[in-house]
Amino acid sequence: MVNSRKFLTTRRGFVAGATASMLVTRSAFAQSMANSLRLRATFSDQQVIYVLDDNVTTRDFVSMLPLGLTISDFSDNEKIAHLPRRLDEGGLVDYSDEAPGDLCYFRGWGNLAFFYDSYHYRGDLIRLGKIDGPLDPLRVKGEFPLRIELLA
Q: What is the pTM of this model?
């Protein structure tokens, strides 16, 4: 009887350890994927890559990809593209490290904002990600067909 009890304890310990290990591995994998999720925005002969933030709004946006939209100039610091539907705004958090290269969702109109110059967070933007590369493609003036797709 002592041997069978020792076996059960050892077996339970093994199963518990293996389960915990799998949960940690899955969590680490999910975190790794969230940190490295990237998309490509292509318009004219330009290409821009973004590293995406992990939030509810970004996940809703990613669920729509790939997308064919139109990108156009807006103001003197950004380009915009109108989405086919509004996004879940659950990713709204205040931030103070706004920077050129941010990709945001503008809650007011339900559009994407591709910032290529300084801007100020006013509570109406949800950051979806940051550019990974130069800002120059976003400075090309005009209105163009836009293709947005998730990178593998």
A: 0.77
Backbone angles phi, psi at 84, to 5 degrees: -70, -20
- Residue 85 and residue 88: Cα distance in Å, rounded? 10
Q: d(Cα 36, Cα 23) in Å, to the nearest integer?
A: 20
Which tens digits make up the pLDDT trace of 15-69? 444 444 444 334 433 444 445 799 999 999 999 999 999 999 999 999 999 999 9
d(CA 17, CA 10): 10
Q: Which residue has the tokens 């330009």?
A: 46
68's CB contacts (< 8 A; 6+ apart) are 145, 146, 147
